[in-house]
Design a protein that fits this description.
heterodimer; A: 372 residues; mainly beta; Tumour Suppressor Smad4; 2 domains; 10-stranded antiparallel beta sheet; 6-stranded antiparallel beta sheet; 4 helices; B: 259 residues; alpha+beta; Phosphatase 2c, domain 1; 5-stranded antiparallel beta sheet; 7 helices; 28% strand; binds zinc ion
């Protein structure tokens, strides 16, 4: 048996056969209560009883595990989670999402490792034999529990700094520890108005780990080479006349700048969409989540249903603006300012210039404008 | 159309365990949901973020909002904060982030406008998946974007609190603004960096999944961040677009009628 903890903001209580990670003030009476039980060799059910003694609303987030003689269980509530690793190396996560009470899972000899985690676990794991610490996670290697236990002192020797009493831990918690939140939380419900606990039956998570998180994308700003007219408007490096004011642009060395807004789409409804990014237009447009820079997404009214769900897209490339028909059922017509209108071929980008009218339906179109 | 969308929101904030004062502010109206994280000495950060949310609360009072008004409004707020600082030397240099959602009428139907200046964030949580909608205006994010820092390093880099755009700047910052249509069942989280500094995206998603009522979700997020360390002020606004009971119609694109 080997127990390690990761520093964090929750409290870990560990004893010879039970381990607790709980979102609570280290000075809370329940921590002292659990510590007394855990070090006396109480099992996980006794620990949960001690936690629930103040009512379940008092402690929303905790994970308790107990294991002895080849059997045990984990109990998870709120934002806590437990990862189980089997003898075959497979892992399984137990969470209590959507469960108002808690979730319980049995352990047997096929489990070799438990990781109890709160919302954050940080830093490297430090050994902890028995005690109370501020922690974000607990790693418990059960494999060694299957062989005759070693003398506890052997582990304790390296764990001296972290074997502390609840009183000692309480000193490290700032006075300002106050849960719940302060008086600005004017929109909070009265205590207990929404959390309905009708029974304390044990429940088992059917589909743990259903939640996926997508890492935040850091989007690099698009840089373009640019020169300026005498009024300071930015223009493409080879511009002769300013795209904004029409004045002549003197020859000069281009500099790289974050791409300025290339203009706007004026919709036939009168609304304006800035071309500081791409635009997706349709009757029920749906943008994939794989784009690092999200386009504007515009839902167009189409009582007759002749605009497609994803109909046409405006893409920006450097200083250029392209229109792309997205395989729409009724097509897209492009009318350049000094040329004959034509139909877009599906999925073939066509560059458009200021003054171009793009039509999606008889009564629905937009103009690409450049304004100062 | 099935009439007005049903929007429900909840918010919570906490000073955290380390800071002496809470310089975060938030606003929840029928059309504006935003967080402002103030900065500046002598409680000036609280003044700046308070000015920002008070100004944003006025969006929508005059009726239907258009996306361009959101942009103009935010630029004007920059001037208001500068002017307030000029009147009171103790508030010199105060600034604030401002991030959130505004319900607008656009192209004949309701849309969201997401706006951002600084490193507070808007997330969208739908179908069990989390997506960060805003891009941080922070020094570390720019270093990550430039490939000079890994996202893991960014999480602990001492520069992570340095914002590159804020209201109260001598030159008005360009707000990031984009529109997208409402979708029933969408849940949004607007939060200050005191939340995202303590909880990773997976933890945020797991709390958002655990509470139906947006007020409970906001309170639980803030509590979890405080428990996880509470090194900064923590604010969360959770916004739900509650599904109506009408089944979606309008699935096929009709062939264009020949007139
Ligand atoms: Zn010009």
């Amino acid at each position: 048996m080997e127990v390690r903890y990761r520093p964090g903001g929750w409290v870990a209580v560990t004893g010879p056969r039970t381990w607790l990670l709980v979102a609570a003030d280290a000075a809370a009476p329940l921590v002292a209560r659990c510590w007394e039980l855990a070090r006396a060799g109480a099992d996980e059910v006794e620990l949960v009883g001690a936690i629930a003694a103040d009512g379940l609303r008092a402690v929303r987030d905790f994970a308790v595990a107990g294991f002895a003689e080849g059997a045990g269980q984990v109990i998870v509530r709120g934002a806590a989670r437990v990862e189980l690793t089997g003898t075959d190396g497979s892992t399984r996560v137990v969470t209590a999402e959507h469960v108002s009470t808690w979730v319980e899972t049995r352990l047997d000899r096929s489990t070799v490792r438990l990781v109890l985690g709160g919302p954050v676990t940080e830093g490297s794991a430090l050994p902890l034999d028995s005690g109370v610490v501020r922690a974000g996670g607990l790693d418990i290697e059960l494999a060694q529990a299957l062989v005759p236990a070693e003398p506890a002192e052997a582990v304790q020797a390296v764990a001296a700094p972290v074997v502390v009493s609840p009183a000692a831990v309480a000193v490290t918690v700032p006075e300002t520890t106050k849960l719940p939140v302060d008086e600005r939380t004017t929109h909070l419900p009265a205590e207990g108005t929404t959390e309905v606990i009708t029974h304390l039956a044990w429940a088992v998570a059917e589909d743990p780990g259903a939640t996926r998180a997508r890492p935040a994308t850091a989007a690099a700003p698009t840089l373009v080479p640019a020169i300026r007219c005498d009024s300071g408007h930015w223009n493409p490096p080879h511009a002769v006349a300013c795209r904004v004011c029409g004045a002549g642009v003197p020859p000069q060395q281009p500099v790289d700048i974050p791409r300025p807004t290339l203009g706007a789409l004026r919709l036939s409804s009168g609304d304006l969409v800035q071309l500081d990014r791409g635009v997706l237009l349709g009757r029920a447009p749906d943008v994939g989540s794989d784009q690092s820079v999200r386009p504007h997404v515009v839902r167009l009214r189409s009582p007759d249903g002749d605009i497609s769900r994803n109909h046409v897209e405006i893409r920006l490339l450097g200083w250029q603006v392209f229109a792309v028909d997205l395989g729409s059922r009724n097509g897209t017509v492009v009318a350049p300012p000094a040329d004959l209108p034509f139909d877009l071929v599906a999925y073939q980008p066509v560059e458009i210039v200021p003054g171009t009218v793009v039509s999606l339906a008889d009564d629905t179109s937009f103009v690409f404008e450049v304004v100062g | 159309m099935t009439g007005e969308p049903t929007i429900r929101a909840g918010a919570a904030t906490d000073v955290g365990l380390v800071r002496a004062a809470n310089e975060d502010n938030y606003v929840v109206t029928s059309s504006v949901f935003a967080v402002a994280d103030g900065m500046g000495g002598h409680a000036a950060g609280d003044v700046a973020s308070g000015l920002a949310v008070a100004g944003l609360a006025q969006l929508g009072l005059a009726g239907v909002v258009r996306p361009e008004e959101v942009r103009r409004h935010i630029v004007r707020l920059n001037g208001d904060i500068l002017a307030a600082a000029a009147r009171n030397p103790e508030q010199w240099g105060m600034g604030t982030t401002v991030t959130g959602l505004c319900l607008v009428d656009f192209a004949g139907s309701p849309h969201w406008v997401v706006f951002n200046v600084g490193d507070s964030r808007v997330y969208r949580y739908a179908g069990g998946s989390m997506e960060q909608l805003t891009v941080d205006h922070s020094e570390v994010n720019e270093l990550v974007a430039a490939g000079k820092l890994s996202p893991a390093e960014a999480a602990t880099d001492p520069r992570r609190n340095v914002v590159t755009r804020a209201l109260g700047s001598p030159t008005a910052p360009e707000p990031d603004i984009f529109v997208f249509p409402l979708a029933e069942g969408d849940r949004f989280l607007v939060c200050s960096d005191g939340l995202t500094g303590e909880l990773d995206d997976g933890a945020l998603a797991s709390v958002l999944a655990s509470w139906d009522d947006p007020r409970d979700a906001a309170a639980s997020l803030v509590r979890a961040a405080v428990v996880a360390g509470g090194r900064d002020n923590v604010t969360a606004v959770v916004v739900d677009h509650v599904p109506a009971h009408t089944p979606p119609a309008d699935d096929e694109t009709a062939p264009r009628k020949v007139s």
